[in-house]
Design brief:
By secondary structure, the chain is an alpha/beta fold. The protein has seven helices and seven strands; from the N terminus they run ααβββαβαβαβαβα. It starts with a helix and ends in a 5-residue tail after the last helix.
């Protein structure tokens, strides 16, 4: 790759492929997952010779769980509901939005709780689901959900976080019947979990 291409490879929608041959979301998704895991990506490329990617992730001392048996590919359920995505990491927020839109949802997005409150107050249509990061500058995800519940009592909530369980407990999230999505997540996991929460009973 030349330097101009290399500088843009992690941007959502950026692709050097022909129209219809690529979405430009592959490396953006990888970047978002790696950053949420506390890691980083090193890239070296020489035009006409090749490219090397090195992914660095924090060491984990716990033993890995046994891999589940592969299952047949299943078409993920789609939706038409409106989802408010609140995430302070711009790359993760953009990729999350694009994944949900790919599954048919209408997506509103905000980088923090205050912006989300203003957006929800001005939005005239329904907001069926709040998908919010737990730990954010300013309002936490829990505080945001509690304030939005006063404006939109029928809105469901799905919390997402890459922090350890102990930190999530501190924010009052890991409780029975609280919808929670651990980071990093794949597009398929995100789509499936959003559909589960939207189809769940109001108490969930």
């Amino acid at each position: 790759m030349d330097e101009q291409t290399k500088a843009r490879i992690f941007e959502p929608f950026f692709t050097t492929k022909e129209p219809g041959k690529g979405t430009g979301l592959g490396l953006a998704t990888v970047y978002g997952i790696v950053k949420q895991s506390g890691g980083f990506i090193w890239v070296y490329s020489e035009l006409g010779h090749g490219t090397t990617f090195k992914v660095y992730l924090p060491r984990v001392d716990e033993r890995a769980e046994a891999a589940a048996a592969p299952t047949a590919t299943v078409e993920l359920p789609r939706g038409t509901e409106t989802v408010l995505v609140v995430e302070d990491a711009a790359s993760v927020r953009m990729v999350t939005r694009q994944v949900l839109e790919r599954y048919g949802y209408t997506v509103l997005e905000a980088p923090n709780g205050d912006t989300a409150l203003h957006l929800a107050a001005k939005h005239h249509g329904p907001i069926h689901l709040l998908l919010t990061d737990v730990v954010m500058p300013g309002l936490s995800g829990r505080q945001l959900a509690e304030q939005l519940a006063q404006l939109r009592p029928d809105m469901k909530v799905l919390y997402a976080s890459g922090y350890a369980d102990r930190a999530i407990v501190h924010h009052g999230i890991l409780r029975v019947r609280i919808a929670y999505l651990p980071k990093p997540f794949t597009p398929e996991t995100l789509g499936r979990r959003v559909r589960q929460v939207l189809d769940s009973s109001p108490a969930a």
